[in-house]
Amino acid sequence: MTALHWRDATDLARAIRRREVTCVDVMQAFLSQIRRLDPLLNAFLFRIPDQEALRLAAAADLRIARGESIGPLHGLPMAIKDLMDVAGMPTSFGTEVGTEVPLRDSLLAERVRASGAIIIGKTNTPEHGLGALTFNKLREPARNPWDRSRHAGGSSGGAATALAAGMLPLADGSDSGGSIRYPASFCNLVGLRPSPGRVPTARVFDGWSPHALLGPMARNARDAGLLLSVLAGRDPRAPLSLQGDPAIFASLEPIPLPGLRIGWSRTLGGLPIDAEVMAVLESMRVTLTDAGCVVRDWEPEWPDADRCWEIIEMHEFMAGSAQDVQRNARRLRPELVANVAVGLSQSAAEIAWAQIERTRIYRRTAAEFERFDFLVAPAAPVVAPPVECEWVQQIHDVELHRYFEWQRCASRVTVTAHPVISIPAGFSKQGLPVGMQVLARDHGEHALLNFAAALEQLNGFAHRRPPPLTSGT
After folding, report:
1. Which position among 92, 106, 115, 155 bears the catalytic label?
2. Which pLDDT score, from 0 to 100, does residue 473 have?
3. Is residue 94 in some structural domain?
4. For the chain, which residues score pLDDT lower than 50?
5. What is the pLDDT of residue 472?
6. Which of 14, 44, 85, 120 could be joined to 102 by an S-S link, Cβ 3.0–4.6 Å?
7. Alpha carbon distance 440, 413 (integer Å)
């Protein structure tokens, strides 16, 4: 029998509803895995005491015994990325400066709690979510369960570590330049950056921006859809939030592959891609072709996407972190201080140009779906980097000069404002996961998840687990 901590979240939730297992059983299984592995992997920045988690699980069992109505994630443990508030738990933003204990949940935590999930802590993240690798001064880097000498990615790195190691059944992430997609690729996970407004956020600054978005992370498409069904839906505090019943995302049907029109990008417009990553993806292309998909070469025409993303990214860092930098510049990561300075120096004309260019790129991308059903590209340019690395500075003979340049596989897609999912595509010769990202039409999350579910049936990669970890490996 599959151990509880490795069972799909969808199956666990069903088993709890049917009283085949108790919430306490489930909580004990995950807590045991956390106690054993988190000292080796550093997935969490904060956890409630085990006794408190078990007390909450017992209370969840009592609600079932009383016949009370329960939510779709009832009794499942979750931890929230430490960029989002959870009432009574410290919000550190991955920094030792200015940690606060909020009195109220963020909108995301509200929805997780309302679903019946039990929030047991906060997952590891880099300072203010900066970069695609998770390291900070609070704890050692979030390590990759597939190879503990390597990063799990970032900025949703703690979430990816916890999922891949069986310490959580589901996790949330946020993504402006690959912070969901890179960790998913490095850890053999499914990570969805949805359409703007699909997962609402009540953040205190610009609620109209489609740039930094929230989304689900999971070990397979079905579980990602389950979490999306909880996180999605209209909220009056979020002006972009979409109407409609999100329950549809909890019901997936693998899409038939024969006849699907796939646009295939090897380099996303000329980016350097590691040879091992390209080899894995070329094998996946053969698999799709053999399954009946019509796969044709496609490379995007987004010549100004990098500049567009950078202007908007620096502007958002300025809007979200300027006050923190003003008060504590000497104690914060230099890249964060530099980002805020760039954001403050940008002109209104530059910001207006970036918003106009983002609109152009959105429309060019939308036009591609007149001839393709999905667009496929590398999810990351390399396999998970060594844990000593702060950012990838060279790929092949191409030198990279800023921490975010190696994130362009993701950031170029961000400015399209189309939904994109990172899904397992195979493994390198060293046994490290490789992901591919798939774009769909605007608001096409359900189609993306159905496509991911079909690929899971085809190749089985999502069902592989990391080798067992011990204190010496």
Report:
1. 155
2. 60
3. yes
4. none
5. 58
6. 85
7. 11
DSSP states of 307-337 as a string? HHHHHHHHHHHHHHHHHHHHHHGGGS-HHHH
Residue 308 sits in a domain whose CATH number is 3.90.1300.10
Residues 251/221, Cβ–Cβ less than 8 Å: no
At residue 204, the pLDDT reads 72
β-pair type (374-378, 294-297): unpaired
How far is CA 461 from each of CA 358, 414, 435, 452, rounded to the nearest angstrom?
A: 34, 26, 10, 11
The crossing angle, in degrees rounded to 10, of helices 305-328 and 334-345 is 110
One DSSP character per residue, 5-53 reads: GGS-HHHHHHHHHTTSS-HHHHHHHHHHHHHHHHHHH--EEEE--HHHH
How far is C-alpha 259 from the chain's CA centre? 30
From CA 285, how far away is CA 287, in angstroms rounded? 5
Give tens-digit pLDDT for 399-423.
999 999 999 999 999 999 999 999 9
376: DSSP letter: E
Work out how many domains the chain is built from and give that number.
Answer: 1
Kind and range of the H or E run holding 446? helix 445-459
- Beta strands 171-175 and 213-218 are antiparallel
472 domain residue, yes or no: no
115 is catalytic: no
Task: Considering the candidates 156, 179, 229, 422, report the single residue annotated as catalytic.
Answer: 179
For 101, how many CA atoms within 13 A lie in the half-sphere containing its CB? 4
Query: Of 161, 218, 166, whose CA–CA distance to 189 is shortest?
Result: 218
Whether 283 is a known active-site residue: answer: no
Structure tokens that stand for 252 in this block = 């997936």
Euclidean distance between CA atoms 175 and 193, whole angstroms: 7
pLDDT at position 203? 76
Distance from C-alpha of 182 to C-alpha of 142, rounded to nearest angstrom:
13
Peptide bond into 155 cis (omega under 30): yes
pLDDT at 469: 86
Report if residue 245 sits inside a domain.
Answer: yes
108: closest CA among 122, 96, 95? 122
Rounded Cα distance between 363 and 360, Å, is: 5
**345 carries an active-site annotation:** no
Range of the structural domain that residue 169 is part of: 4-463
Cα–Cα distance between 383 and 392 in angstroms, integer?
11
